[in-house]
Amino acid sequence: MGILRFVIGILGGTFDPPHMAHLALAQAALEQLALDEILFMPAGDPWQKSEKTGYEITAAVHRMAMTSLAASAAPYFVADDREILRSGPTYTVDTVRELGQDCVLLLGADALEGVPSWHRADELINLASFAVVDRPGISRSDIDQVVLRRCTWIDMPAIDISSTDIRSHVAAGHTARFLVPEAVAAYIETNGLYETWST
Q1: What is the pLDDT of residue 3?
Q2: What is the pLDDT of residues 43-58, one digit of tens each?
Q3: Are 193 and 58 in contact (CB under 8 A)?
Q4: How far apart are the C-alpha atoms of 25 and 133, rounded to whole Å?
Q5: Closest Cα partner for 183 from 80, 67, 22, 90?
Q6: CA gap 138, 148 in Å, rounded
Q7: Which of 102, 127, 128, 185 could form a disulfide with 176 if both were Cys (CB 3.0 to 4.6 A apart)?
Q8: Confidence at residue 49, expressed as pLDDT on a 0 to 100 scale
Q9: How many contiguous H segments (helices) and E segments (strands) does the chain have?
Q10: Spatial separation of the C-alpha atoms in residues 97 and 11, rounded to whole Å
C-alpha cells in the first residue's frame, strides 16, 4: 500500500485586500491539481512589494483579519499567519522549508516571471512547484525555462480585479461590495480602511 501524500497549495500575497479573484484562483487550482487544501498566507514584510510601489501597506492585523474572513468561504481554505508572525522580511523559500511537505505555489504569470529574482530562488524552485494563471501581456516565452518546467497552468476565466484598484475605488467613496467577499467588504467599511489611500 502506497504512502498517501497531503499536498497543499500556498496562495501568498499582501492581501490588501483579498478579493474574489484570489478565491477563484484557489478554487480552480484545488480542483485541477487535486490539492488537499489551500493556505492563504499574507506576507508580513513583503519587501519587493514595498520597494516597487512605495505605498504604505495596511497593518498586518487588518490584512490577516480580512484574509481569515475570505478563507472562511470553504473548509479547505485556511488562513495561515506564519509569515505575519515572522520577524524581518518575508521570504517564500523559508515558508516552504518550514512546512516541510509537498507545496504548490499559486501565482499569476506576472509574478512567476519575477521568481528568478526572489530570495534564494534556485532553492525555492527545487523545493516547490507552481500553479499559474495567465496574465495579459505576459507570454510564456518570457518565463525562465527552469521555472517553466516546474509549472502547471490553471484554466480559469480572466478576472480583472486588483487590490490596487479596490483601494482606489474605496478611496473615491465607493463600496468594495461584490469585488471582495461580503464579510471583507463589511470589515473594510467598519474599520474605515482605504478611505484616505492614495497612490
Answers
A1: 55
A2: 987 655 555 556 789 9
A3: yes
A4: 8
A5: 67
A6: 13
A7: 185
A8: 54
A9: 10, 6
A10: 16
Residue 56 near residue 196, CB atoms below 8 Å: no
74 phi and psi angles, rounded to 5 deg:
-150, 150
DSSP helix/strand/coil, 187? helix
For the chain, what is the domain count? 1
Residue 126 covered by a domain: yes
DSSP conformation class of 190: H
What pLDDT is recorded for position 198?
75
Q: How many CB atoms lie within 10 A of CB 66?
A: 28
Q: Cell match 532553492: residue? A: 123
Distance CA 107, CA 124 (A): 14
Boundaries of domain holding 119: 8-159
169 within a domain of the structure (yes/no):
no
CB of 180 within 8 A of CB of 149?
no
